[in-house]
Amino acid sequence: MLAGDVIREAYLLAGVLAQGQEPEGFYAIRGLLYLNQILSQWGKQNVYVPYSSTLTIPILPTVYQYIVKPVIIEIQEGNVTSSNGTLTNINISTPKEANLFNYVNGSSARPQSVFLSQEQVFPDPTSSDLGSKILIYPKPNANYTLTLMVKYQLPEVTLFENMLNFPPYYMEPLIYELARKFINFFKTVPGATFNEDYEKLMLELKSSTPQDMSILVKNDFMPHRPFKPSGYLWGPYAN
């Protein structure tokens, strides 16, 4: 399902468009604006918008700085694999620890720490897309593979954005939330059970287990660990 399909379904549910009509022009622009507003607002309502994924970076000898995109919000955990297959965990450094990185006088060795710089950069001079700077320490003495579980910045969606990465139970609440905005804007009259259905769907979404509230793509670390999104005040959560 594309973002445009979500917008069309919401317009139908709100009674703004009839079956067979497509949201074009003003309707498409307004729908996309509201859709991105909802995705941004959900995080403030303790609805965890999924955007966690695994990032793999080939590490080169003596190269300790890497630029990746899109923007990374947080590095959650990571490991380093050497060319002979030896795997070790890597420390996620704080700014205070990163200030002690000594690349000038320090010797090269197997990377033991990784730090996410707060500086956002442009990885490609020909593009306006921002990225993140990652530092590893000490300076690598050989080729390695760095694997990180990261939280990416959720970008604004476009009309042709594929929503397949969203778990299925997100879609119906998203359509209802969008339809509610259309009803308020266009002053249409919702169906008799619309408000009741909306409240029920949002309650179910907010009470979903954090295991379901995440799409941890290729979690190479602890796939059966307890998972509770950082910064979100959920109730009991499943292992």
Polypeptide structure, described:
The protein has a four-stranded antiparallel beta sheet, with no helix packed on it. Strands 2-7-6-5 form a four-stranded mixed beta sheet, with no helix packed on it. The chain is an alpha+beta fold. The chain folds into two domains: 3-49 and 155-206; 52-152, no CATH class. It contains five helices and eight strands; from the N terminus they run H-H-E-E-E-E-E-H-E-E-E-H-H. The protein is elongated, with a radius of gyration of 22 Å.
Which properties best describe this structure?
single chain, alpha+beta, 27% helix, elongated, disordered C terminus
In spatial order, strands of the major sheet run 1-8-3-4
- Report the span from N to C terminus: 30 Å
- Average pLDDT works out at 82
The structural class is alpha+beta
Largest sheet: 4 strands, antiparallel
